[in-house]
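Regression report. Comparing outputs from two consecutive submissions.

Submission 1:
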Amino acid sequence: MYILILFLPLLSSILSGFFGFYFSRQGSAFISTFCLILTWLLALFIFYEVCLCHSIVSIHIYNWILIQLYTIELGLLFDTLTSSMLIVVTTISMLVHLYSTAYMSHDPHLSRFMSYLSLFTFFMLILVTSSNFIQLFVGWEGVGLCSYLLINFWFTRILANKAALKAMIMNRIADVFFIISILIIFLTFKTTDYNIIFNIIPFIIKENYIIMNSSFNIITIIAFFLFIGAIGKSAQIGLHTWLPDAMEGPTPVSSLLHAATMVTAGVFLIIRCSIIFEYSESILILLIIFGGVTSIFAGIIAICVYDLKKIIAYSTCSQLGYMFFSCGLSNYYIAFFHLFNHAFFKALLFLSAGSLIHAFFDEQDMRRMGQLENSLPFTYICFIIGSLAIMGFPFLTGFYSKDLILEFAYSRFIIDSNFIYFLGITSAIFTSIYSIRLIFLVFSSYKESSGFYTIYKFLSNHEVEAPWQMFISMFVLAISSIFIGFIFSDIFLGNGQYFWSNSIIVLPCHFYFIDIEFIHPLIKNLPVILSLIALLFTEYFLNLVKIWPLKYFNKSLLYKCYLYKGWFIFNSFFYNAGFFNIIYNNIYIYILKISYISTNKYLDKGIFEYLGPFGFYKIFKYLHKNFQFYNYSIIFFVIFFLFISTSIIFILIILFYYNAIYIIINNLGLIVIILLITFFNFD
């Protein structure tokens, strides 16, 4: 039964991909959705047996790779972390499959799309359930491959091609570091199995590597390379540029990619390797810095862009930053709880955006929208629920994890965590601003619509709400975004609960769960208070711009601030995403030029050709010109050629095989006979 949870998505992918022509598009969609529903039911049963009944399961399938005494087994590990992650992956994947049957119903390649979705789910399940780093890396690369296939699903679009290649290249950069970390782990522990490695780590924390006459702790080196691999997959600042461009794929792909699969893999890796990071204080500080900077940077960009899906994409980067700095503060269980909650309200936002785009004839620019609250009431309600949840509105799903992260940041009473608390508070304010801005520009009746008149006429005269498949998916996610945080908060974070067992290891010196009980109530409620103030101020400002008569607004202080030159510089910087793409493109082109000059021009076309065929051609041409006067007869030429060739062969044999001289002496007569026969039979 445990193996079946991997087999069903793979079976779905094979049937839809190879036999979709025989099943038809609707048949492929039904088979894929049915297999994912069965997978979700199995995940619920596994969660009950492993987490609630405290029965951890480890399955050895077979020995995969045998290298002398070293064996890599293909096995599955179902502990509390894995079982909880299975709930996220299977639930979101099942709802996205159901949603896609309606959203992609017009596409002639629906069978291929459903096959890719199921394959994506299969590789994510491989990543989550693996019992060793090699098997985890198979799932890690598998989700990267499937992301390329899904982002580039509409392969006739140039932007989709570029976005898919960009995602592949950026992730390969991080994957190189992840491979190096696996190699160092193997060299250090002589195995890649989780159970062995995590039990041996306390005994080698003092060991060092000598690199360039400098001593480096082994655990710190491993944690550093794992950290780089994680920031690439989870799109933290520096390697984040692929994630917004991945919006060129269909909207269900964006939902699955952002909510439950690929971008959460980096956070899952850090939580899985919690004991490695616990013994490396410097890498924990790196997690804090990268997470805090990413959360605030992505939040500012989301305020300045106008593409509907890119705003939600940058919101994902911001929320992943929260998870990273929570891990840096050794709050791995809270980071996972936020990952768990984030999956539901982020999937709701993306699927609601897909419903809007589906009704609005594939338009994504918010500046062409407005006054849609009456035309799309259900989508409007889903957007409000998802936005309030991501803001951390009281008693919605995001409130139970997001505020807790900030409380723990404040309770550390150290400089870096207090600074990160400030970044987290600021990021929460920006979250409120871009969420209410999105709702206002798309739905508000105060905003004058600047879209096409024919579209608005169609929306006002026709029933354009989501089909029943899309409606069910969005409804389930909306209910989850309201209640799922309350339901699981006591399970994951309850005092006195030993839910996580040995899945997540936190050193006693980093455990300060009791400290948050002594924080001042104002500090505890400050994120919510500031978020609500930012929400009300943004709503008032956006309405004010439209309500005020133009002659009064042009004279106001607000309008003068808007025209201030510094605002345009600020806005252009973040509208272009910090110019990361421009910088990377220029660096990449410069590297290509250097590579062309050094490798192609001087090596391939230079040294290698002169040492290879072109050089031999030049040598023989020179010899031909200078030795033409010796060619009086064919017999003399043949003798000269045989002498030169046998001399070269004789010299090479002596140089590369020192016993060859004895063989030649012992067989000298035979060699002479062969040469004579060759000479007299040349013609």
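Submission 2:
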Amino acid sequence: MQLVRREIRGSLPKLIFMAGLSGICDAAILAAVNTGASAVGKSDGLSHWAAAIFVVSLLLSINTQQYIMITTTAEIEAIVHQLRLRLMDQIRRSELLAIEKIGRATIVAAITSDTAVLAQSSRTLSFAIQGVVLVFCVAIYVAYLSIAAFVLSLIVVGAGVLMFHGASRSSEETDKASERERELYDRLTDFLDGFKEVRLNATRSGDLFDYTFEISRAAANSKIYSLSKIHRRTVLAQTALYLALGAVVFVAPRFVTSLDGSSIVMTATALLFVVGACFGLVQSIPVLAAANAAADRIAQLESTLRAAAVSTEAAKSQPNRQFKQIEMRDVVFRYVDKSSDTVFQVGPLDLSLQPGDLVFVTGGNGSGKSTLMRLLAGLYPPESGSITLDGIPVDDNTREAYRSLMSAIFSDYHLFRRLYGITEPYAAEAVSLLRQFRLADKTELANGEFSTLDLSGGQRKRLALVVSLLEKRPILLLDEWTADQDPEFRYKFYHEFLPQLMQAGATIVMITHDDRYLAELDFPAIRIRMDEGQIIARTSMQTNKRGETQTP
């Protein structure tokens, strides 16, 4: 309800007024029916006033209920829309470390399943609003008929509500079930992203399935336990309503002599009329509780993302298209390996980059090459040391402009189907690049969208490089780009594409293990070798036409 009150775009007072009017109309229908029924058999035989009130109240009730249900649905969907967009906006403005710490499963669950729970609760919420108002109005009508019956019903139902509320405070099992469901998402990702590895190894497949089975069973047991408690409380609340009805019929007449048969019948009718609304309210509690938990998780995620998001002013920094020098001085970065909880340190690192430089980064697996690339790209902020662009420190205020120099293809790159962010005319150049990279017969570009991404690993990387070249940024970062290329295209890259890029004035930093091809280059380059997070060797390479490496 706090979320609805904070996010609602329409008129909340009008919605409350219509809900109140709906409850009054429903109570008026009940009063008209009771009055009309009591008039049967008397001299006039029919209460025209009661009939008129019944018709008018019914028409008003129909219109107000439609307004409440439609408005509530529209408002909840609008709130969900706002939340999704706001979360995605905060995600795109957050830093990589924050996103990695939160975890993919938590983010995806909040934007998909949690917002879906909120959307599904709209109908339940509209019925709950009407039910609360109806119960309140009928309670006033019961008090009008008999104060004693009202007090007795209030005592019995109030005791049931207190027991219900006291038993429903704990939500630990619901939280556990939600956590297990997030773990299930991670295991599903293992099945899909690691399908080849799973299919190749029957033992791995069996172990993964068994582990997934345990998580799924734990999630089911947690949900069964929490829902069982809710269902027990639901039965308790329903029992309290029936006890109130029985108390009015069987207990009240023994202690209140002023109650006649007609009053008891009218009071019992009123209570029967409201029993359905009360049952609806009780049954809506699990749905609203789930929506409440979802709203709480979304609020927590939004708070975390808001703290990690870059300010709007920084995000609007003007992009750079040229630079004079980038310097890394004594840069240190540490991260914790999730699998072993060990701390891995990269640095201190010193690196200078100038326009037209070609830098090859080599080293074994786990030596820190990819982390160096992320530091250079501005995706990881250094814990100590500094990165400067033309003498200006790269910080929260300048990082966005610094990143605008970079176009990167990381080892875990993502290939977009549309050319997002590329506004310059590119049609002719795109056709030429697709042909040059031997992709023209595999996919085509129309209206800013590729016809297909169903390509091999090497072809996808070539297409990613086409997109990077269309961005026309001065610095190109490549992380093991040639690893998925066949020998023929790998040779073509080093002896044809790379010289073309260098002649065009590109600045390239490339992680590679292609020592053979490095020895054959005939233009200046810098080779950096890394081990255990340190730059252990730095070589300025100048090769001749015969492939003999010269080291000044």
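Expected: both submissions complete independently.
Actual: both completed, but the second showed a warning that disappeared on reload.
Relevant detail on submission 2: The longest strand covers residues 326-336.
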